[in-house]
Amino acid sequence: MKSRIIPDDAWQYGHRSPAEIRATLLELTREFVVAARRTPGVLRIAVLGSLLTAKPRPKDADVLVTIADGVSLGALGKLGRRLKGSAQGKLNSGADVFLANRSAQYIGRICHYRQCHPRVLCHARHCGAVPHLADDLDVVNLSPELVIAPPLEVFPEIVARVPIPSDVERLLIAPLGRPGAADG
What we know:
The protein is of the alpha+beta class. It is built from 5 helices and 7 strands; from the N terminus they run ααββαβββαββα. Strand 6 and strand 7 form a beta hairpin.
C-alpha cells in the first residue's frame, strides 16, 4: 500500500481556509499586543515572520518584545503562554514571543512552561535564572539587524519596514492605530 504524503500545512491546518488561518493568527496577535503594551517594562512590540508575508498558511505568530532591564517577566510570560495556547487550541498553530533588552540585544524568548524546573525538553542555557525566560540561544537566535529594525513595529508607534499585506493592515495595524479602539 502506498502512503499518502500530506504537506505540512495541510496536516497542520486541515481544511481551514487561508483567510481563516491568517485572520485567527492576526486577531490573537492583536490581543497579545493590546495586553502586552500595558505591561510594565514593555518598551517596544514588533511582529516578525511569515505572518507579514503573503504566505497563505503561515505556521505561527512571531512577536518581538523589547523590555526594560530588570523587568519581571511574570505578566508577559502569562500573556505569551496565552498567545501560544490560543494559537494551538484554535488552529493547531504556534506562537513565539522573542525578547530583546533595551540595548537591542536578543536575550531569548518567553518560556513555554509556567514554572521553572529541569526538563528534558528545556534547552535554556540558564533555566530558572530569570523566571519565564528561555535563553535557548543555541536553538533560536535573532540577528542584531532584525532586533534593531524589525519588519513591523506596532508599539509604541506603528513603523512598517516591509510591504504590509492587506489583512495585516486591516486586522492588526488599523485597530491598533486608533487610540482606545483595541483596548477593549
